[in-house]
Amino acid sequence: MKVDNDAKQLMIELRGGKEDAFAQVFRMYYNPLLNYAGRILHDAELANDLVQETFCNLFERRKELNEDLQLRPYLYKTVYNRCLDVIKHQKVESNYANQELLDFYFSKVIETSEAELALLEEDSKGAIQEAIAKLPERCREIFELSKIEGLSNKQIAEELNISVKTVEAQMTIAFTRLRKELGWLLCVIFFQNF
What we know:
The chain is mostly helical. It is built from nine helices and no strands.
């Protein structure tokens, strides 16, 4: 019963605006609440701000509090609800920012056919380079000499000291793998860029 009486007396003093009572509540609950908010938010600075605001609100609304109020559950519930509000607000901001980027992309970047074609070309080049990099080493070397350096099969055979038939076989392997990897992009890219 003494604990209940002490808690009730603390609430009476807190409601009366006694600074010692507020300081006692602050010392008792600040660190545990900070730890609690930090675990929810995963952001120490934000948790600190939120707990400080909770104590400021507690002091400002102290006269509205019922003297039978159990302070510990009240403070934890308040911090929990504030954490949820912050998380919801962050999600709204994130969705808004993502929408802003999409709006910018569609209204400015893809406003012109030139911009859209440039983006498509950039994506295509990246996909091709990635697909070429996946070819076996010898196959990739022959393919690059043919399509990037512009050498004939005979020139490649002479440079690498292999037969023309080997060059042709490796090019067939390269085209088969690239066709499988790139699909419809293959024709578009090779006729435009190579």
